[in-house]
Amino acid sequence: MKLTTLPEWTALLDHYDTHKHLHLRDLFAGDPERAKSLSLQAGDIFADYSKNRLTTDTLELLFDLARATGVEKLRDEMFAGAHINTTEDRAVLHTALRRQSADPLLVDGVDVAADVRGVLEQMGGFATAVRSGSWTGHTGKRIKTVINLGIGGSDLGPVMAVNALRYYSQRDITLKFVSNIDSTHLVEATRDLDPAETLFIIASKTFTTDETMTNARSARDWLVAGLGDETAVAKHFVALSTNATEVKKFGIDPANMFGFWDWVGGRYSLTSAIGLSLMISIGPDHFRELLAGFDVMDEHFRTAPLEQNLPVILGLIGIWYTNFFGSETEAILPYDQYLDRFAAYLQQANMESNGKSITKSGQSVDYATAPVVWGEPGTNGQHAFYQLIHQGTHLIPADFIGFMKPLNPLGEHHPKLIANLFAQTEALAFGKTAAEVQSEGVAAELVAHKTFAGNHPTNTILMPSLTPHTLGQLIALYEHKIFVQGAVWQINSFDQWGVELGKKLATTIYGEFKSDDHKTGHDSSTQQLIDRFLDQR
Ligand code: F6P
Q1: Residue 461: other Cβ atoms inside 10 A
Q2: Could you tell me which of 109, 137, 348 has the C-alpha nearest to residue 224?
Q3: Ligand 1 within 6 A of CB of 205
Q4: How many whole angstroms separate alpha carbon 335 and alpha carbon 380?
Q5: Are 87 and 497 within 8 A, CB to CB?
Q6: For residue 124, what pLDDT band results from cuts at 50, 70 and 90?
Q7: Hey, whose CA ends up nearest to atom 6 of ligand 1?
Q8: Which atom of ligand 1 sits closest to the CA of residue 203?
Q9: How far is it, in rounded angstroms, from Cα 309 to Cα 505?
Q10: Quick check: CB of 266 below 6 Å from ligand 1?
Q11: Chain centroid offset of residue 383 CA
């Protein structure tokens, strides 16, 4: 049955009609217990979702929708290793990468838990050797800089987490990330580096991604030119991949390849071998704490009833805004500088997973799917784009993320930071009425300008402090929120066919740049751009 004809969907439509004008001011005034009843603790994460434009009846209807669309069934299938990525006929088992249980986990007849443990041990041994200096470069020098060459999920997860956990890092090793095929990225990253002290990690699930392989070949040229010896590659390149054949072809010793499996999606791969750069940065013990944190949220998601299940609740609230209020974007606003790449990471997780318009059974959807996800750390955003959230014309649901204890306490910085976080959610929810503005003696012609309508929805997500363990819980919370939304929308959250067409056309156009015949039937605009480049480059 089509989603939009389900009785649970139409019940929500009716409910929206009667509730869309409710104001958070009235909802809070009418229920002194609102904050308490619309908050939840899951692991170390406390979430206050009371500043949303909904009532407990709304949530009931949303839970009904989740049940009707089979969210629980799909969740159980995912954890059991069923091939829920139907268009690629694959299991979706990133949860197996961080599973703390010692029991075997059989998928298609293979104990994947044992495989996962094996690679983790291999990673631990290598990371420890690099960190201790016992792994040296070709000339015997210690490794001082590690450069991860990868893109998409093979970049965004590690770079986000290395930044997030920099406090726990070994400071005499610098981590860099090169993703863009623009040579500037690699050239600037390697400028002034000594190749003898540089290790490249080629992170690519497929080992065929053009951006990564082009960067990898140029990095190899840079290294060989610098050290004057082809055989130096062995001590300066390792690979993270599922494609042993291509890794070997590139010239990397299979002993220095860290494997993973087709049931790990690129954007869900941080806790696989793709996390090697992070492990080198923070060490195997912290990496294991991160995995244990993920597992706390995985278990919560797997076992908690829908009504007390945080990823389910946040996912359904997102659906309330996307599909009924028609909001098109979602802001991620972490009040912690270490989380400066968190929104970028969630952008891929969300938009590549749920930016789909065809259901699993091949029908076009007649409802909106993934929101546009964006954000910057607070308080910077306050002086950039919050104006639009407060007084613009868009409805932008926002998640505010903060930590109770700072990692770098300094004077009054932290209480001021957190005061800003709380103040923003208060201002967004309650605004300031014209009467309140007038009562402050504001000139009549300025009253409208200084009035804040309020009623802007937010979730506030608080944790004790930023540790590998809490970061793991936070990432898993969002992964599962995305899962819930994809399940309700009846789409496959685990493929990404939308990246293919551009890739293919780029290959064609690049081929034309190199051939004599450039007239291969493009539209007049594309042809004009190609001609201009060929003339002016
Ligand atoms: O953007 C498409 C994509 O396939 C992502 O899903 C993936 O994270 C990225 O490219 C990189 O792929 P690979 O790890 O195979 O190089």
Answers
A1: 22
A2: 137
A3: yes
A4: 9
A5: yes
A6: very high
A7: 266
A8: 14
A9: 43
A10: yes
A11: 24
Mean pLDDT along residues 172-186: 98
Kindly report the number of other CB atoms within 10 A of residue 209's CB atom. 23
Dihedral sign, Cα of residue 120, residue 126, residue 130, residue 134? positive
Q: Is the CB of 157 under 6 A from ligand 1?
A: no
Q: Is the CB of 496 under 6 A from ligand 1?
A: yes
3 state SS for 274-302: HHHHHHHHHCHHHHHHHHHHHHHHHHHHH
Distance 154 CA to ligand 1 centre (A): 7
Quick count: other Cβ atoms within 10 Å of Cβ 404? Answer: 11
Q: How far is the CA of 500 from the centre of ligand 1 (A)?
A: 11
Residue 520 above 90 pLDDT? Answer: no
pLDDT value at residue 518: 62
In order of 63, 197, 289, the CA distances from 459 in angstroms are: 18, 45, 26
- The residue length of the chain stands at 537
194-195-201 Cα angle (round to 5): 125
Q: Is 352 a catalytic residue?
A: yes
For the chain, what percent of residues have pLDDT higher than 90?
Answer: 97
Q: Name, in order, each residue with C-beta under 8 angstroms of 493's C-beta and a sequence gap of 6 or more.
A: 353, 354, 356, 482, 483, 485, 486, 487
Q: Is 36 considered catalytic here?
A: no
Other C-beta atoms closer than 10 Å to the C-beta of 415 total: 11
Q: What is the DSSP string of 325-344?
A: I---EEEEEES-GGGTTHHH
User: Ligand 1 pocket: which of 90, 149, 154 to mutate (most atoms <8 Å of CB)?
Assistant: 154
Between CA 282 and CA 286 the distance in angstroms is 6
Q: Which atom of ligand 1 is nearest to the CA of 150?
A: 16
Which residue, among 130, 389, 459, 141, has the nearest Cα to 283 in the 3D structure? 130
324 pLDDT band, cuts 50/70/90, is very high
Q: Whose CA is nearest to atom 9 of ligand 1?
A: 152
The pLDDT tens digits for 380-389 are 999 999 999 9
Amino acid 300 reads: H
Sheet of strand 174-178, all strands in order from the earlier edge strand to the far edge: 174-178, 145-149, 198-203, 237-241, 257-259
Radius of gyration of the chain (CA): 25
The β-bridge partners of 330 are 373
Task: Give the number of the atom of ligand 1 that is nearest the alpha carbon of residue 151.
Answer: 11
User: Ligand 1 centre from 212 Cα, in Å?
Assistant: 10
Is the distance from CB of 3 to CB of 69 less than 8 angstroms?
A: yes
CB 423 within 8 A of CB 18: no
Contact 149, 209 (CB under 8 A): no
Distance CA 311, CA 485 (A): 10
Tokens read off for 503:
């890739």
Could you tell me if the CB of 345 is within 6 A of ligand 1? no
First-to-final CA distance of the chain: 55
**Catalytic residue, candidates 352, 356, 456, 469:** 352
Atom of ligand 1 nearest to the CA of 267: 8
